[in-house]
Every structure is written in C-alpha cells, then in structure tokens.
Write a structure and sequence with these properties.
The chain is an alpha/beta fold and about 325 residues long. The protein has 2 domains: about 1-205, Spore Coat Polysaccharide Biosynthesis Protein SpsA, Chain A (Alpha-Beta Complex); about 230-310, no CATH class. It has 14 helices and 11 strands. It has a 5-stranded mixed sheet with strand order 4-9-6-10-8. It has a 3-stranded parallel sheet with strand order 1-2-3, with helices on both faces. Strands 5-11-7 form a 3-stranded mixed sheet. β2 (about 30-35), α2 (about 40-50) and β3 form a beta-alpha-beta unit. The two termini are about 30 Å apart.
C-alpha cells in the first residue's frame, strides 16, 4: 500500500521498486492518490494501465492515514506492506519481511530508514538523519541489532493485527505510524526491528521544506503523547529542552551572566560542528558542510511544532483496546 500526493518526482521509482520484488509470492500495489497539484495521478494511472498489479484509488482531500486505510481495505492479502512514495524498496524486501514475520511471530516487522539523496541539501538532510545528534537513538534511523522496538520505518503488518486495533487513526495527520505501533504493542503485539529490512528514503530537497516537515512532526508528536503519555521517549524531549535552554541563556545574558548564558549555546554549537567535522571526514561528502544549517532546522522546527502549534485534538477516532 502506498499513499501519494504531489509525488510526481518519486512515485514511479517507488512503484517500480514494489513491483520488482524477488522471491516473494504474488503481490498487488494499491496506490491511494490524494488531491495533487502535479502529475502524480497521471503517472500512477499510466503505470496501472501498463501493469495489472498496480491499482489506483482516489482519496480526495484525505490525509495520509485516510489513504493508508483505504488501501488496506482495498487490498486482498493477509500481509500488508507499507511503501512510502519517497522510498525505494530493495528487491528482497518483501521476501525478507515474510521470513522475519514467520520466524519471530511478530505482528509488525520493519527496518531502517536509510536516508539518501542527490542534491546538496538532500544529502545534507540524509546525513543529519543518520547521526545521533540529529535523531537520537532510534533504531529505525540509526540501525542496530534485531529485536523488539517501539516503532519501525514503514512496516510490514499482519492484516489480523491491523484489524485487531482498528487500522490507522485518521485524526492524525502525522505520527500515525508510531501511534498505530503503540496500540499494537498495547494489545500484546510485537513490533520487531530487523536491519536486513533497510529501505532507501529521499529527504526533502530544501531546508524550507525540511523545516515544514519537522514542524508538523513535532506538533503531531505532542498530540500522540497527550493521548498516550507512556509512549514518551527521552529523545522526543531533546529538542524542546534545547529551546528551553536557549531561552534561559537569553535571560541570563540580560542579567549579564555571560558565563552561564554561554553553556547551552556553546555545547550545542560544539555538538553541531563536531558532528559536521566527523561526518565530513567519515563520508567524504561536501554535503556534510550543510549540517550547521540542517541540524538546527530539524531541531528547532520540531521543537517549535511540539511547543507552540495549536492543533485541535478531537481525540482518537479509534478506542484504546484492553490487552
């Protein structure tokens, strides 16, 4: 299943990667297309005409979880594979996921969001998304050993698990994947990470678009935490605490406490510049020089959305189930 809106530039690659699976049983690709201002609908329609395995459904003005749920309801299989319009599934992805599902008995399996890029800013964002300073300790960003986790990138789901918890919550424009995985775990299910399920992901192409994306991430994360406080992880407080520290530093500066005021800004600057130098040497990619722009853009935008965006929360559309 694949939701898509204004994805003309990447949707073809994503669909081809889904169709190109090796060693997998027969599959179908259900693309839920929202109201787009580009040629996304035309590209998907042409691919559906060329390959009967591709089906396009329209979700009008619906958000991502509306599209995901529509695709799930349309799909025929007992296993549902989520594919993002910005991603590129490796050829063995589905076969590997099915094997891990069977071996572990998990309800959901997934792997690493392997951020890659072509342009300078896209590569800079990709580097930032694969560093501890950029994203903390999340396995789906940083990689790690196989095991149970709170969430994974994309996800390959047993249909029975999705139906047990009521599919995606359509009241969540963002963070719906984390929330769904929380509900699955809350009912006794297992979300399993396997590094063999790494998928290429293409970040936003400019700092402006990256800022908009991360502001929304932060805002909707607050909604999910308000509903499920026990889902909070330490990494989700790092950016808001940074902003609090910078505000306190500004107040201290007004009282001429220069030494104390410099602690947080100096520590953050050292972390950003240190990461820049390390990644520039390690990757030998000049795009690492963009990290002093990209890292603060991600952190401050996320924190701004988390702390200030006034999203009207009508509450979960799907009741929480008892384990």
């Amino acid at each position: 299943m694949m939701p898509a809106r204004n994805e003309e530039a990447t949707i073809g690659t994503a669909i081809h990667s889904a169709l190109g699976q090796v060693g997998a049983p027969p599959l179908e690709v259900v693309v839920a297309v929202g109201q787009s201002e580009d040629d996304t609908r035309r590209v998907v329609s042409e691919m559906a005409h060329e390959d009967h395995r591709v089906r396009m459904i329209s979700v009008g003005a619906g958000n991502t979880p509306v599209g995901l749920n529509a695709a799930i309801r349309e799909a025929q299989g007992a296993v549902i594979v989520r594919c993002d319009a910005h991603s590129n599934l490796p050829p063995q992805y589905v076969a590997t996921a099915l094997r891990v599902l069977e071996e572990t008995g998990a309800d959901v399996v997934g792997g690493t969001q392997q951020a890659v890029g072509s342009s300078f800013w896209q590569r800079a964002a990709a580097i930032a998304m694969t560093t501890p300073v950029g994203v903390g300790d999340a396995k789906f960003h940083m990689g790690g050993r196989p095991g149970s986790v709170d969430t994974v990138y994309l996800g390959v789901f047993k249909r029975s698990a999705l139906e047990r918890v009521g599919l995606f919550d359509e009241s969540l424009t963002r963070n719906q994947d984390y929330e769904l995985n929380f509900r699955i775990r809350d009912t006794g299910g297992v979300v399993f990470y396997d590094p063999g399920l790494a998928v290429d992901y293409f970040p936003r192409e400019s700092p402006r678009r990256l800022a908009s994306q991360y502001r929304q991430y932060g805002a909707w994360k607050r909604v999910v935490i308000r509903r499920f406080p026990e889902s909070l992880r330490w990494r989700q407080l790092a950016a808001p605490l940074l902003v609090v520290g910078l505000v306190v530093s500004t107040v201290l500066l007004l009282f001429r406490q220069v030494a104390l005021a410099s602690v947080v800004p100096a520590a953050y600057l050292a972390a950003v510049l240190g990461t820049t130098v390390v990644e520039l040497i390690r990757r030998r990619d000049a795009a690492a020089l963009g990290l002093p722009v990209v890292l603060p853009t991600m952190h401050l935008s996320w924190a701004f959305g988390f702390m200030t965006d006034d999203i009207v929360d009508s509450g979960p559309q799907i009741p929480r189930l008892e384990e």
